[in-house]
Amino acid sequence: MAKLSVGPEDPRVARTRRDVIRASAASLLEDGWEATTHAEVARRAGYSKATIYAHWPTPVDLMRDAIAQICDDATHPPTSGNLHEDLHDSLTALALTLSEGRYDRLMASVIERAGHDEGARDLRDRLYQTATTGVRGILGAHLQPGDVEPCLAMLVGAVLVRATYEGEAVTPAFITDIIDRALDRTTLRGS
């Protein structure tokens, strides 16, 4: 039996996928899950709904690629090696992202669906991993392994609650305070 050779992706298909994924990600961040329909994405991207459905048959398929794009576009502040400064910079960046109001709406939509949709649970996990990568890396470089996850939960949870649930500004003083409190119960590597 002859083996079919698979060549590089057709540039037109690659361009269509890129345009649709970017339009999906923009719609998701600006207007939320409910508004990010095949019709809305087709309108934004300039393609037919049939084209969108051909590549992304379900809303979760569309959201998976949109969220992958959002995660791929995420950046984290560079680290200096100073635990307190690096945590402060990373938590400040997270607070800024949350204060823009787009990421928390996205998380809320995904969390709402995660209770009954395994695909949405995967998306929730991907978003959480992306949002916490910087802080997790900093903690992992300085803390004993058993202290990383509890400290991460305390720090990220405090910023999340302050920015989204309380609707308060996440000030530098607040970040310094939560870092000091979280690190008070941890063991640094080599200690």
TrEMBL record:
<dbReference type="InterPro" id="IPR009057">
    <property type="entry name" value="Homeodomain-like_sf"/>
</dbReference>
<dbReference type="InterPro" id="IPR011075">
    <property type="entry name" value="TetR_C"/>
</dbReference>
<keyword id="KW-0805">Transcription regulation</keyword>
<dbReference type="Pfam" id="PF16859">
    <property type="entry name" value="TetR_C_11"/>
</dbReference>
<dbReference type="InterPro" id="IPR001647">
    <property type="entry name" value="HTH_TetR"/>
</dbReference>
<feature type="DNA-binding region" description="H-T-H motif">
    <location>
        <begin position="37"/>
        <end position="56"/>
    </location>
</feature>
<dbReference type="InterPro" id="IPR036271">
    <property type="entry name" value="Tet_transcr_reg_TetR-rel_C_sf"/>
</dbReference>
<keyword id="KW-0804">Transcription</keyword>
<protein>
    <submittedName>
        <fullName>DNA-binding transcriptional regulator, AcrR family</fullName>
    </submittedName>
</protein>
<dbReference type="GO" id="GO:0000976">
    <property type="term" value="F:transcription cis-regulatory region binding"/>
</dbReference>
<dbReference type="GO" id="GO:0003700">
    <property type="term" value="F:DNA-binding transcription factor activity"/>
</dbReference>
<dbReference type="Pfam" id="PF00440">
    <property type="entry name" value="TetR_N"/>
</dbReference>
<dbReference type="InterPro" id="IPR050109">
    <property type="entry name" value="HTH-type_TetR-like_transc_reg"/>
</dbReference>
<keyword id="KW-0238">DNA-binding</keyword>
<feature type="domain" description="HTH tetR-type">
    <location>
        <begin position="14"/>
        <end position="74"/>
    </location>
</feature>
